[in-house]
Amino acid sequence: MSDEEHQFESKADAGASKTFPQQAGTIRKNGYIVIKNRPCKVVEVSTSKTGKHGHAKCNFVGIDIFNGKKLEDIVPSSHNCDVPHVTRTDYQLLDITEDGFVSLLTDSGDTKDDLKLPTDEALLKQIKDGFAEGKDLIVSVQCAMGEEQICGLKDIGPK
């Protein structure tokens, strides 16, 4: 049909999307939602009735899963919201470096060295104390929208 050659440049990375659409009216408390480009856990949802100017509105209050900040958003209940893909993975803690990074053992036997210690004081103290005592520790890493953070700790006994 045409003699022209078309070249397409892809700017996206390979792999799955960081979010998926979900109708605002179906998102419930303890679910996840993206508010102001941040992944949040929904702590409160209220829905207003339809008024003379259209849609029922959902008022979401969410807590950012990485920094703990409270965010709010109001969306018509029939519209779609972005919902982040949130995953939790457990890794064995191998080492803590001087500059605050941790070395973790993956299921495949490789090491993961790109995570910092958590900012949560209580969790940070538990990790450092347990590591200093020579315990075998399993850390839970929460991942959403390209960010990762240690969010939990399990003690599986002495080494």
UniProtKB/TrEMBL annotation:
Domain (Translation initiation factor 5A C-terminal) ranges: 85-154
Organism from which the protein derives: Chenopodium quinoa
Keyword hit for Protein biosynthesis: yes
Name of the protein: Eukaryotic translation initiation factor 5A
Annotated PROSITE patterns: IF5A_HYPUSINE (PS00302)
Region (Disordered): 1-21
Purpose of the protein: Translation factor that promotes translation elongation and termination, particularly upon ribosome stalling at specific amino acid sequence contexts. Binds between the exit (E) and peptidyl (P) site of the ribosome and promotes rescue of stalled ribosome: specifically required for efficient translation of polyproline-containing peptides as well as other motifs that stall the ribosome. Acts as ribosome quality control (RQC) cofactor by joining the RQC complex to facilitate peptidyl transfer during CAT tailing step.
Keywords: Hypusine, Initiation factor, Protein biosynthesis
Domain of life: Eukaryota
Post-translational modification as stated in the protein's UniProt record: eIF-5A seems to be the only eukaryotic protein to have a hypusine residue which is a post-translational modification of a lysine by the addition of a butylamino group.
CDD domains (alphabetical): S1_eIF5A (cd04468)
